[in-house]
Each structure stands twice: as structure tokens, then as C-alpha cells.
Design a protein that fits this description.
Order of helices and strands: HEHEHEHEHEHEHEHEHEHEHEEH
Number of helices: 12
Structural class: alpha/beta
Radius of gyration: 25 Å
Bound molecules: beta-D-glucopyranose, calcium ion
Number of strands: 12
Largest sheet: 6 strands, parallel
Oligomer: single chain
Length: 336
């Protein structure tokens, strides 16, 4: 009997040992994500895609909304670090204030993948396990400008008052966001470089937001109804607000200013398809989501990062693509 008991104990200890080993071998990867604002339509799409990929890969995902507060985001990151997350993906609220997160991550030795809201290079280089996934803001503006230029080449009547200049308004995203400042500059640069003479009527900061752009455009129409020929928008949501304001005006659609955005989200693509927007620039939500998920998994498994094609060991930038009525169907299929 005594022998049997010992045997059973050995067997039991063996079992426990084995289970332990298996548990540690198959420990699920845990990836935390913090979004600056989950109500932002581009972020909403991007987040859905990142989470779908991670779920398919059987990763434990915790995603949180920082509600546009850097203090809330810092706390979320701190909690996820305490909870032992392997990698944390951060869509910074304030792209100029990543220091707290960087210090906490370095202390815990947990890699951080920043995305969409780009921190300055100096901050990204301040520790080796920091990465950035996004696009090149300059490229998106240049491509937007190029769409305008080629549209004007085939539609000289867009210069309604025939003064040889294009009177324009800019709807800008959030102040201080790389995709607002740089998109505006590079779009205007590309149009001017092509020899089009621009005449700026006004601009408004509409914070990426449809209803803010709608309100601003309503006001602008009071002043510039007969003179505006082009509305450059830093994203599609704001372009959609502009479309809405014009739809409610008494200006016939043939006399509308040209409207263009950036992002290529479904609603924007539909307006490109029906001709109310002359185009948009596709902000590769699918490519960015794949890159974030793939990099996060590789980091969590401590794998070689060669497969992630990082630039300078830190950046993954997905190219922007021009979308006009000619190729909009391809993008409608892609994002649906
Ligand atoms: C997108 C915007 C979005 C912003 C959020 C930009 O890249 O074009 O639609 O609101 O990112 O950070
Ligand atoms: Ca004109």
C-alpha cells in the first residue's frame, strides 16, 4: 500500500510537472492596444482589422480607448505593463508627449509599437525597442495635389470665374498632427509645382471631424459661395462634412467646388464613385493593420524582425495610393 502511495505521488508530481511545462510552452501571447479615440472612423476601421488578425492568431488582445486623454493613456499603458503584456501598441493621444510611456516601457523591458500618430524621430530613437507603423504624411499630400492637378487639366471649367487662379479653402485636421500640417503643405506644393496658380480664401481646423467640417463649410458658404473653387480636406470625414453642407445649399452640383480628401474609407469612396468628391488618397488601413499585428507577434515571440522589413530598424511605412473615379471600384471591393 505504502509503495502504491509513493508510486501515485510520483505519477501525480510527474503530471503536474508536465502540465507546467506545457503551460509555459503554449503560454498565449498578450498584446495590449491603446487608441487615442475609438470614435475616429479611420481608427475604428484600423482597430477592427488589427484585432481580427490578432484574434485569428490566437493572441490575447486587450484594446482600450484613451478618450483623447494622454493621462488616461499613460495609465492604461502602465496597467498593461503591470499585467505582463508582451507588447503594447500605442496610438498616441499627444504625439509630442510619449516620454512617460517610453520610460515605463523601458523599465519593464516591453516593446512599444506606436502607430498612426507619429512621434518625432528623436523620441523613437530614445530606446531600441520602440517602433512606428504608419504612412508618409508628405506622400499623402503630394498625391492629393497630383489628383487635383490632373483633374484640372481635363476640367479647365473648374476655374469658375476664369481668372486663371484656383480659389481654395483648406479643412485641416487636428492642430499639431503630422497628417494635418504636412498634408496641407505638400498638397499645395504639388499643385503649385505643376504651374497651377492658387489663391487661398480661408482655412479651418475641423479636427478630422465630419460635423465640425460641415459647420465650418456652412459658414464659409455664407462668405465664399460664389468664389470657392476647391476644398482641400486633410481627410475624408471632413470632405464628407463639406459635401453635406454643399448638398444643403442652393448651388447646383455642376457648380460645386472640387472636393478631395484622404483615407479611402467606405463613405468617402462612395462619394468619389458618385462624383461629389473628385478623389481621395487611400491610407492603407489593411497594410498598416497587418504590419502592426505581424510586428507585435514577432516581438512577442522574440523572433527575427527581418520578415517585418523595418526601415532603420524602426519604421514601417505603407504607401498611400491615389483614388479617382477610374479606380474607385477596386478600393470599394477592398475595404468592404
Ligand atoms: C487619418 C485621419 C485620422 C487620424 C487620426 C489620419 O492619418 O487620415 O482620418 O483621423 O489619422 O490620428
Ligand atoms: Ca478662379
Amino acid at each position: 500500500m505504502q509503495k502504491l502511495k509513493i508510486l501515485m505521488l510520483v505519477f501525480f508530481v510527474g503530471l503536474v510537472g508536465c502540465t507546467h511545462a506545457e503551460v509555459s510552452q503554449t503560454k498565449q501571447i498578450q498584446i495590449g492596444i491603446s487608441y487615442y479615440d475609438s470614435y475616429d472612423p479611420f481608427i475604428e476601421q484600423l482597430s477592427k482589422r488589427i484585432e481580427d488578425i490578432l484574434n485569428e492568431e490566437n493572441v490575447v488582445v486587450k484594446s482600450q480607448d484613451s478618450e483623447k486623454s494622454q493621462i488616461i493613456q499613460n495609465r492604461q499603458v502602465s496597467d498593461m505593463l503591470k499585467d505582463g503584456y508582451d507588447v503594447i501598441c500605442v496610438n498616441l493621444v499627444d504625439r509630442t508627449a510619449p516620454k512617460k510611456i517610453i520610460t515605463m516601457a523601458e523599465e519593464a523591458n516591453v516593446p512599444i509599437i506606436f502607430f498612426n500618430r507619429e512621434l518625432v524621430a528623436q523620441d523613437l530613437e530614445s530606446w531600441k525597442k520602440l517602433y512606428y507603423v504608419g504612412g508618409d504624411a508628405n506622400e499623402s499630400g503630394t498625391k492629393q495635389g497630383e489628383i487635383v492637378v490632373s483633374y484640372l487639366e481635363s476640367h479647365p471649367e473648374a476655374d469658375h470665374n476664369l481668372d486663371g487662379k484656383i480659389q481654395y479653402i483648406v479643412m485641416e485636421g487636428e492642430a499639431g498632427h503630422q497628417d494635418a500640417i504636412v498634408r496641407t503643405e505638400s498638397s499645395i506644393q504639388a499643385i503649385s509645382d505643376a504651374g497651377v496658380v492658387l489663391d487661398k480664401l480661408d482655412y479651418a481646423i475641423a479636427n478630422w471631424n465630419r460635423s465640425q467640417a460641415y459647420t465650418k463649410m456652412k459658414q464659409f458658404l455664407g462668405k465664399y459661395k460664389d468664389s470657392v473653387e476647391l476644398v482641400l480636406c486633410n481627410n475624408d470625414e471632413m470632405a464628407l462634412g463639406v459635401v453635406q453642407a454643399l448638398s444643403e445649399s442652393d448651388i447646383p452640383q455642376s457648380q460645386w467646388p472640387l472636393i478631395i480628401g484622404v483615407d479611402g474609407l467606405l463613405d468617402g469612396l462612395k462619394e468619389v464613385k458618385n462624383g461629389t468628391m473628385i478623389g481621395t488618397v487611400y491610407n492603407d488601413q489593411i497594410g498598416q493593420a497587418e504590419a502592426i499585428a505581424q510586428l507585435a507577434i514577432a516581438l512577442a515571440k522574440n523572433e527575427d524582425l527581418d520578415q517585418c522589413h523595418l526601415t532603420n530598424g524602426k519604421y514601417i511605412r505603407k504607401p498611400y495610393e491615389k483614388v479617382t473615379q477610374e479606380n474607385v471600384d477596386d478600393y470599394l471591393k477592398l475595404v468592404q
